[in-house]
Specification:
By secondary structure, this protein is an alpha/beta fold. The chain is built from 14 helices and seven strands. Helix 12 links the parallel strand 5 and strand 6.
């Protein structure tokens, strides 16, 4: 592609890059980037998943944007310019929609595509980004469609069909590569930014809501002035001057240099993420090699319990899971750390690639309950039921509510913090044939913490015993395949 960036081809590529920063829709690009930065994601998200999401989101934006441009471009070129001439009214409506949406976001509303989704919901997220790309395109038509129809589509008549197709592809590549490079760069910078602000991600989310609102206000003022043929407001004029500087800078770089830089950004991200994930997954192998770490596997029936953060890390999770497995005749897999080690390997890095015992367990059971411990403000009496097998989650919830009436049993994923939902493809809870449920237990129900400091009983606390009995009942009453 880079070799082909000469003459008309280079011009087509540059026009595609400039389409992403056109004066009509210029503010939609930073709004999209800030909103992407503020989206919630699971804790310790692997770089491969972060890259994949960045590419999916940027692809959706590009497909929506370019799809509208090419359809309207063909219509304008071959039939009528009515759509091109009247797009300003649709742009005004988009501005109004963004103002209303931004105002709602300031009150706490979050669009469905602002959180990572799994399975079928992932399609909805991709569809939502395409819709944003469509809005981006409609707002931009008045400023850029003329270049597409004359310079890009016009090359078909001037230089032949093949040359015209190449020009169209390079136009699309210019726009898509700029958006993808910005999104990927932000996706990997996101880790450091979120670390800096720690648990204050809502600051970025609030900033995104404000920017969405201001973007809507900008579009309203911009297109009202265009429709009424009045002078633009001063703040609109300042933004236009900023857009002109950005566009001039990109033009000065030239098609070849831009293509090289954007290609390098995407290539480095793709290559480095693979290396980072390979190193990260090996953490589990190193943990198992520790001389004081015990890896336990007990194969019984097709129902399984797991506690791979057991021992000194998440206190009593291994005792609870192993006891429930023994009493119900279920299988068990656990990693028990000695007191004081506290080596936390994220669930998506607990891989059967590095453990024959874990592989044999996953291959043996049909369904599993993984037992974890957590502590978080506002959840001291909450048991969280994540994982992908929602039927089993409902089944388990029924027994837990009967056994632990003083606790809140959260079996609705929307009420569970994103990083505790257990929905990652590589999370062991989702690896058996029918998947499973990830149970997050607060300290109190495990019998640890200040609540039990004056308790004088022997063995496990009454709450913990009731929890185990609920797990046993759940396993015994779950229909298993022979």
């Amino acid at each position: 592609m880079i070799i082909a960036l000469e003459g008309n081809f280079a011009y087509s590529f540059i026009l595609g890059v400039l389409a992403a920063v056109n004066p009509c829709g210029f503010v939609l690009l930073p709004t999209y980037l800030i909103f992407f930065l503020g989206t919630k994601e699971e804790e310790n998200l692997p770089s491969s998943e972060r890259l994949r999401r960045a590419l999916v989101v940027s692809s959706g934006i590009s497909i929506g944007f370019l799809g509208i441009f090419f359809v309207i471009g063909v219509i304008s070129r071959l039939f009528t310019q009515w759509i091109e001439l009247n797009a300003k009214y649709a742009s005004l409506a988009i501005g109004l929609i963004l103002v209303v949406g931004g105002a709602r976001m300031l009150t706490g509303w979050t669009p469905k595509f602002a959180t990572p989704q799994m399975g079928g919901a992932q399609t909805k997220t991709f569809r939502a980004t395409i819709i944003y790309g469509v809005a981006y395109a409609i707002a931009s038509i008045g400023c850029t469609i003329g270049f597409l129809t004359t310079a890009v589509f016009g090359s078909i008549a001037l230089n032949g069909f093949v040359s015209g197709v190449v020009s169209i592809l390079l136009y699309g590549a210019g726009m898509a590569m700029l958006v993808a490079a910005l999104t990927v760069s932000l996706a990997f910078a996101k880790t450091g930014i979120v670390t800096i602000i720690k648990n204050r991600l809502q600051i970025i989310q609030r900033l995104g809501a404000i920017l969405v609102t201001l973007t809507g206000v900008y579009l309203l003022f911009y297109w009202y002035a265009a429709i009424s043929e009045k002078r633009s407001a001063s703040f609109v004029a300042r933004i236009e001057r900023g857009q002109t500087r950005v566009a001039s800078f990109l033009q000065q770089q030239g098609a070849y240099r831009l293509a090289v830089v954007l290609t390098i950004i995407l290539a480095v991200a793709i290559i480095s993420n693979q290396t980072q994930d390979e190193v990260a997954v090996m953490m589990f192998a190193k943990l198992l090699a520790h001389p004081e770490v015990q890896e336990v596997v007990e194969l019984r029936n097709k129902f399984g319990f797991m506690a791979y953060h057991g021992g000194g890390l998440e206190h009593l999770t291994d005792v609870i899971a192993q006891s429930a497995a023994e009493k119900s005749g279920a299988s068990y897999y656990g990693v028990h750390q000695p007191r004081g080690l506290k080596w936390h390997v994220p669930s998506h890095e607990v891989s059967p690639k590095f453990s024959n015992s874990l592989k044999s367990f996953i291959d043996h059971v049909d369904v599993v309950i993984t037992v974890h411990g957590f502590g978080r403000d506002g959840f001291f009496t909450s048991l969280l039921l994540g994982g992908r097998n929602r039927h089993l989650a409902g089944h388990l919830s029924t027994h837990l509510k009967q056994a632990l009436p003083s606790y809140e049993i959260c079996d609705d994923l929307e009420t569970i913090p994103v990083d505790l939902r257990g929905l990652h493809d590589d999370n062991p809870v989702n690896l058996p044939r029918l998947g499973g449920v990830q149970v997050e237990l607060p300290p109190r129900v495990r019998g640890v913490g200040r609540f039990w400091k004056d308790w004088q009983g022997d063995g496990l606390t009454p709450h913990t015993e009731s929890l185990i009995e609920a797990l046993v009942t759940t396993a015994k009453n779950w229909p298993l395949t022979k």
